[in-house]
Amino acid sequence: MQQVTLPYKDIVYEVKDQIGWITINRPDVLNAIRELTLDEIIHALKSTRIDPSIAAVVITGTGDRAFCAGGEFAMMKRFNWTNAMLWNERMLDGAMTIRGLGIPVIAMVNGWCMGGGNEIALWCDIVVASENAVFGQTGAKVGACPTVGATQYLSRSLGERLAREMIFCARRFTAQEAVQYGLANYCVPQTELRAKTEELCERIKSHSSQTIRLTKVSLNHESDNLYASWRAGMELLAHVWGSEESIEGMNAFTEKRAPDFNQFRLRNKVEIDDYLAGVDYA
Question: How much helix, strand and coil, in percent to the nearest 5, is found in the chain?
Fold first, then answer.
């Protein structure tokens, strides 16, 4: 991880009334995250540990179009099996920092909450969504695997069937559906999003910080056993980055066309047929 210095470039961080506010500030790319973005988010989160007056942290995105659209394609196209672990480790560090923080972390979601952005929301303790929020996992459409949160937590929120549909079919959920199925706690009008989030923060501030810290550890206990799944998922994801299918998926997205993944299925069939033709069963 690179050295992070203040002031931040990709985020805005402020502490107001004992609440830390982390805002992803990249509206030109729908608040998509790159290496520096994650480094700064992690740095800001960890800084709260030395200020016990902070009662909660809110993560959000600039503007009303997106909470976070996921990873930035310009960055992800550079990944391969060798260097991808640097990104994967950042994602894991971000997740474990949020889970390990002794205070609640709230995702305040406005607009698109997709891919890695949806995984960030999954890492958080509470999710407050505006009526224009949309939740989704886009990995199957662009040739990436959502193994840094989605494969661990989605089935706990949505149930096994809907989680698989969200990942395999890239199904999107509206804010209303997100509340209905357990992806979010609240769906409120866009004009009331900040007020509802602040209301929850005030409620948290009025409660015992010691109790919250200790019970968060207890609440995490069972799902902490999924850590092995995180490590395995990062190894799987490292094989995906830089593959022909991932490059085709990301190129198709940026070129605004449908990806041609079928070419790889047909080529693989030819290779399997050639192999089977040479198998000696005698």
Answer: 55, 15, 30
Beta carbons of 42 and 8 less than 8 angstroms apart: no
209-238 confidence digits (pLDDT tens): 999 999 999 999 988 888 888 888 888 888
Q: Parallel, antiparallel, or unpaired: how do β-strands 134-136 and 112-114 relate?
A: parallel
Helix (H) or strand (E) run with residue 11 in it: strand 11-16
Structure tokens at 82: 């060798």
CA distances from 154 to 4, 94, 110 (A): 31, 18, 20
Contacts of 114 (CB under 8 A, 6+ apart): 66, 68, 69, 70, 134, 135, 136, 137, 138
The predicted-structure confidence for 81-128, as pLDDT tens digits, reads as follows 888 889 989 999 999 999 999 999 999 999 999 999 999 999 999 999
pLDDT at 2 over 60: no
Q: What is the rounded distance in angstroms from the CA atom of residue 208 to the CA atom of residue 70?
A: 34
253 close to 145: Cβ distance less than 8 angstroms = no
- What gap in Å lies between CA 55 and CA 116, rounded to an integer? 26
Q: Report the chain's mean pLDDT, rounded to a whole number.
A: 93
CA torsion through residues 92, 114, 37, 259, sign: positive
Q: Supply the pLDDT for residue 3.
A: 65
Query: Which pTM was predicted?
Result: 0.92
Q: Which amino acid, residue 270?
A: V
